[in-house]
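Lecture 7 notes. Example A: sequence first, then its structure tokens.
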Amino acid sequence: MPQTPPIWCASSDLYRTLEPDAKLLLQGTNSMGAGKGDVLFRPDDEVQGFILLLSGHVGVYLTGQGGRDILLYDIKRGQTCIQTTLGLMGGGPYSAEAVCESDCTFVLLPRALFETLLQTSTVFRTYVFSAFSERMQNMMRLLEQIAFVRVEARLATALLERADANDQIKATHQDLATMIGSAREVVSRRLEGFAKRGVVQLDRGLVTITDFDALKEYSRTV
């Protein structure tokens, strides 16, 4: 008699593609919830299992010795975390911090189950290594941006990528600095420069794009 899959599987694209034997291994697993602002892991925490995000948005941050944060990457629905994969496969602890940017639901597959799925499921193994490869490519692009692209271009790109339907970005200057790997004071000066040129309008915790074409030109400068 077939078993009923866990409730969380209905919202997982990965589960629908797994082999029947792999699906059976997931019987008994449950989803968990976390609220906006909750920390899922911190530097030096031991990796407990494989995280698969079912809903919400998680930011993974690295903090330098001077206390400045940089956003390494975002985790969104259906995605997982390269920090977690590294810890499970290499045995080391976390080196960054994961913060829920919204209310989230996720599944935490224990280490033993992760290792079994990795060994026995071609679909799961392909998913893990494809996600790992994509994250590594994104990390390389981030390093390239920080090392070789001007602050104005990085800031313009971040604004264009995060603008909502009203052409607005709800973020503080510190939030934007963290996104692009710069200092708040530097970002504030660049935003004020954009505002003086009529490219954006600044309000407390809010940036409104008023000239998309000009901002796109700034995003292309190197």
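Example B, a different protein, same format:
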Amino acid sequence: MAKLSAAGHSVINCTPTSASTVNESLKKRVDKANSNAVDIFVSIHFNAFNGTANGSEVFAISNASKAIAKSVLAEIVKLGFQDRGVKNTGFFVIKNTSMPAILIECCFIDSASDMSKFNAESMAEAIKVGLIGDGDDSSSIEPATLKITQKTVLKPSTEQSADIPASELVDIAIGSYPVLDVRREERHYWVKWPNKTKAGRDEHFIFEEHAEIE
């Protein structure tokens, strides 16, 4: 999540904070992804079987999802893991989401050979590259003016304001504001706002219906 956010992408954590059953947990994940109309749903897991099975695989059922899955798996395989292929088992979270969805089995946690290769940072980078392309975010900062059309708040993530601690929100009145950088993505504007650093942040999100770029 951190790597995608650093590259300028909105990331929504769909993992529920509570659930009484596995089915309820899965439904909450799907509902959150669908209600936020995300572009891609990604579920990350680790396999376990008999201590000798090893390698990486990605599950997807639509043509769009399979293309994303192949890209992600190709990057993971570069780390030295056996390519177990893209598979089309209809797991609940990839069958019931309304956008392209993939479920990644990074490797086998009960495999000594897989664990000898596994590095969390390298795996996260491989997944990021598979999703959005190689290299770190190299986009140049482009000063701009953001026009706030409705009183709103700056947020440190794409979550609903009600789900974020008040200490991490910054009130913004209607008006035009110079910003270091701003990009529209999905249903939000990503904003680098130099003098709004509550909670130590200078990157924020605003719902698109509250603002526009001048």
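Note on Example B: The chain has two domains: 2-132, 144-213. The longest strand covers residues 101-108.
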